[in-house]
């Protein structure tokens, strides 16, 4: 194994350990000693990659942000660039599916759990970075714009405001699911959210095409 490969593995190990600690303890309560113990690393190895707790926390968020870029890449590319970007039911179903995909990541991936908690606790950072939220809102807005242009969105919606509301709603739903069930009921909660919300978003004739439960788990 090359030195670069070892360095990348060490960095990833530290990120995963830190994400688990941040997810459980939150940014303010998490200590570097606790992260060192979880990563089973020396202080020198940790500080070689990350000079401070805030730098480490931001790296965890950035790691998740890069994964989100993969999830949202078809949306960013647009339908013309990626014809298979949307499921047959169109951009609204894509939005539903992506919310469930992120929900599964929250259940299964420690980096996602840590990054989402850190994104929520941005106010604890000396230099908060709203980029993740701005990106999520922009991607949701893109999907809403596509749905409006396709004629499936109900008239009268301000898609800028609606995008912020939908991202905020997901944030709240996953937090409540975390408190009530450790997120084991997140899929059900998201399904019920979309079932309750879609009639106010989508024209009645398009509702039968949409599945609030999202894609079947493979």
From TrEMBL:
Domain HTH tetR-type: 8-68
Native species: Streptomyces coacervatus
UniProt cross-references to InterPro entries, sorted A to Z: ArpA-like (IPR047923), CprB_TetR_C (IPR054126), Homeodomain-like_sf (IPR009057), HTH-type_TetR-like_transc_reg (IPR050109), HTH_TetR (IPR001647), Tet_transcr_reg_TetR-rel_C_sf (IPR036271)
Keywords, ordered alphabetically: DNA-binding, Transcription, Transcription regulation
Highest taxon above the source species: Bacteria
Name the UniProt record assigns to this protein: ScbR family autoregulator-binding transcription factor
Transmembrane regions listed in the UniProt entry: none
DNA-binding region as annotated in the record: 31-50
């Amino acid at each position: 194994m090359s030195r670069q490969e070892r360095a990348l593995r060490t960095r990833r190990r530290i990120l995963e350990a830190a994400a688990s600690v941040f997810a459980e303890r939150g940014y303010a309560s998490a200590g570097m000693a606790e992260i060192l113990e979880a990563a089973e690393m020396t202080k020198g190895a940790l500080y070689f990659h990350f000079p401070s707790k805030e730098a480490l926390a931001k790296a965890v968020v950035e790691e998740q942000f890069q994964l989100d870029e993969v999830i949202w890449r078809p949306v960013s590319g647009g339908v013309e660039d990626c014809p298979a970007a949307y499921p047959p039911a169109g951009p609204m179903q894509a939005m539903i599916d992506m919310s469930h995909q992120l929900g599964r990541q929250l259940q299964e991936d420690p980096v996602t759990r840590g990054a989402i908690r850190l994104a929520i606790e941005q106010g604890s950072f000396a230099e908060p970075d709203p980029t993740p939220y701005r990106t999520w809102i922009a991607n949701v807005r893109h999907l809403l714009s596509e749905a409006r242009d396709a004629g499936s969105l109900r008239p009268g919606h301000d898609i800028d405001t609606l995008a912020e509301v939908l991202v905020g709603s997901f944030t709240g739903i996953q937090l409540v699911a975390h408190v009530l069930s450790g997120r084991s009921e997140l899929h059900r909660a998201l399904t019920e959210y979309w079932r309750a919300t879609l009639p106010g978003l989508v024209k009645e004739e398009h509702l039968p095409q949409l599945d609030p439960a999202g894609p079947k788990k493979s």
